[in-house]
Amino acid sequence: xxxxxxxxxxxxxxxxxxxxxxxxxxxxxxxxxxxxxxxxxxxxxxxxxxxxxxxxxxxxxxxxxxxxxxxxxxxxxxxxxxxxxxxxxxxxxxxxxxxxxxxxxxxxxxxxxxxxxxxxxxxxxxxxxxxxxxxxxxxxxxxxxxxxxxxxxxxxxxxxxxxxxxxxxxxxxxxxxxxxxxxxxxxxxxxxxxxxxxxxxxxxxxxxxxxxxxxxxxxxxxxxxxxxxxxxxxxxxxxxxxxxxxxxxxxxxxxxxxxxxxxxxxxxxxxxxxxxxxxxxxxxxxxxxxxxxxxxxxxxxxxxxxxxxxxxxxxxxxxxxxxxxxxxxxxxxxxxxxxxxxxxxxxxxxxxxxxxxxxxxxxxxxxxxxxxxxxxxxxxxxxxxxxxxxxxxxxxxxxxxxxxxxxxxxxxxxxxxxxxxxxxxxxxxxxxxxxxxxxxxxxxxxxxxxxxxxxxxxxxxxxxxxxx
Length: 468
Fold this sequence. Notes:
Elements: H1 3-6, E1 25-27, E2 33-35, H2 40-48, E3 52-57, H3 63-77, E4 81-86, H4 89-104, E5 121-124, E6 129-135, E7 149-153, H5 161-169, E8 177-182, H6 189-199, E9 206-210, H7 230-239, H8 243-256, H9 260-263, E10 301-306, E11 314-320, E12 325-332, H10 337-350, E13 355-359, H11 364-377, E14 383-387, H12 391-406, H13 416-424, E15 426-429, E16 435-438, H14 446-458
């Protein structure tokens, strides 16, 4: 967004002064009439809009309010056709009422003329602007219109989201603005898929993520010194959270249980709770490995490697077999095979990896041959052990990892991509009655496979290589 639009100081018709955010009023959470003052998240979003924006947010941060104010100010100051589409009638009416309040509370000498005005649309003749409101209740919602600005609210909860947006977005020309915001609603659906693509850099959408601590009101009074556990200390240090914020977090986690991560997310991956039952039973303690580990002489380090290049990732996971703690995770793609092999070599040399178990499937076999030659040329002492994945070997491999995570105390780095893959990994029954272990369609499992191979290398006793 340009400097002109960041503060709503847009070129306005000569007939009146431009409307600014400071002219608007809202009802606060206690239903008191207040001037609109952007909080930190609201200000950041409006300043950072690109034209094609996804917003993943914690609950009740005022993001919808900020977007509605942005639409209203644009429509008051220039010609605009702005459409708002919410997931249900109640929310649609709430957003419509908000805009009505913006208009009603403008100073008398600043309030522009209004023509047509109903529950679904308003017209402002001075700027030739329209504001439209609808509910995403059917596959034809929003279809057929032409819009300069679009606000989609709680898109993760839309039924037929893909069809609705396919029609709606075609009505927004190049140079128009589309902002789609939502809290998370499970690891499924159009919004979820687009957020995942944006995180991987494979989307036209700019992703804006606002965790709960962007709202300064999310805190509780603390009378006595608060003793934090390891997880709380890491979170507080990473995001400069105070004791009151940690106290609020404890209270909400007790109140919401597993839903806390969805309603008040702390990273863009774990916000999306897996639909269905995950294969791994995970806890916060699972991801308590030191995020800045040091190499320790005398410890035995092992690694697992899963090759991928374009749609998948090349992932190399390193474990300290002595302490049963993950110490490094490499996750890269869209590079040449030679570049990725070099990155694996550098990682193994940095950690003095004793054994690297590498999957041979797909391009793995060819790359392993080259990897062996390159390790020899670099005088790297790591033993490279091929592993061929079959139904039987994969079942054994993944089950061993499950037991390690749930019963033997294997701890992992708090990497959000790895955590997400583990959380959504499922066991499903096939039509023939067998069981299949995999990520859901369209998802990745490269971190899971690399971790399982590393744990296989760390296993006590002789290393058993399936198909090697």
